[in-house]
Amino acid sequence: MSKFGVLVMGPAGAGKSTFCTALIQHLHNNKRPCYYVNLDPAAEDFAFEPDIDIKDLISLEDVMEEMGLGPNGGLIYCFDFLLENLDFLTESLDTVTEEYLIIFDMPGQIELYTHVPILPTLVKHLMRGSLNINMCAAYLLESTFVIDRPKFFAGTLSAMSAMLMLEMPHVNLLSKMDLVKGQVARKDLKRFIDPDVGLLDDDTSRTMEFEQTPGDSDPLSAKNVMGGSSFHRLNRAVAQLIDDFSMVSFLQLDAQNEDSVGAVLSYIDDAIQYHEAQEPREPKDEVETDMGYDDMDR
Ligand SMILES: Nc1nc2c(ncn2[C@@H]2O[C@H](COP(=O)(O)OP(=O)(O)OP(=O)(O)O)[C@@H](O)[C@H]2O)c(=O)[nH]1
Description:
The protein has helices at 16-29, 60-67, 71-84, 87-93, 111-114, 118-128, 149-166, 177-180, 186-193, 198-201, 204-210, 222-227, 229-245, 258-277, and strands at 4-9, 34-38, 52-53, 101-105, 134-142, 170-175, 250-252. It is α/β, with parallel strands linked by helices. Helix 7 (149-166) packs across helix 13. The protein folds into two domains: 4-194 and 248-289, P-loop containing nucleotide triphosphate hydrolases (Rossmann fold); 196-246, no CATH class. It starts with a strand and ends in a 21-residue tail after the last helix. 48% of the residues lie in helices and 12% in strands. Helix 7 (149-166) links the parallel strand 5 (134-142) and strand 6 (170-175). Residues 10, 12-18, 40, 43, 108, 175-176, 178-179, 254-256 line the site of guanosine-5'-triphosphate. Residues 276-298 are annotated as: Disordered. One of its GO terms (molecular function) is GTP binding.
């Protein structure tokens, strides 16, 4: 038997830390031990004190001050530093026994999940190195995005990008469900759980915005860029890509409701166990980060 872990990811403000707190509380209530790892070098207030805190190794504030970097470049610097000092994680995680669920609370900068190979390297170390942790990713997307469908598809694309990049068991969560219940009809909500491109066609609230003003031929005019037909075509192409891959579906999460947290945990447990039962796969070749830190804040 090997160790178990969940990597809690998603854009800024999606509810990652709140979910981690609710998960830890739920595990406590059910007398299941857990081990909390904060990997957000900017996180400050915790409901439960982390067992490992990246800030004991490096903090975003110090990096931004000392290196003169912005928040995105600074974050990438912190993660590069973590990758150079993986013993910081390994030494503590080595001592964690198999009955613990290891919860990794990640930062919200979207760059980390989409176009730098830092996370795959970290995941590879955790899953395939000597630690041999059986991991599942939990990717959170705010359910209030369903009100703004292009935003919802953009978020769904980032979830898909993380799935493709990390190649690990993956559970996508529509978080903050308490905020949309009552605002979105149950049958409409179902269409966001398994997103299909038709959602954009039915988006009557935005149809007006997508119509181009007759005679407005400047493709870069504010109206055309923000709400014009090219914007609509781009959204449709993104939605079609997601539809074609047919990879992303969501579970609903209301972190304030313990039954909801328990149901999500069951999926995570199942995903981990299913993966454990499969043959181990060959690791991918390591890839180097090819972006400068300054580029991240442009
Ligand atoms: N109503 C409601 N609010 C929530 C829920 N989960 C989180 N929030 C609120 O959303 C805000 C952001 O939540 P966090 O848990 O800090 O989000 P995060 O993803 O960790 O944010 P970053 O660390 O900045 O990336 C906070 O004000 C939370 O109280 C939820 O299930 N329901």
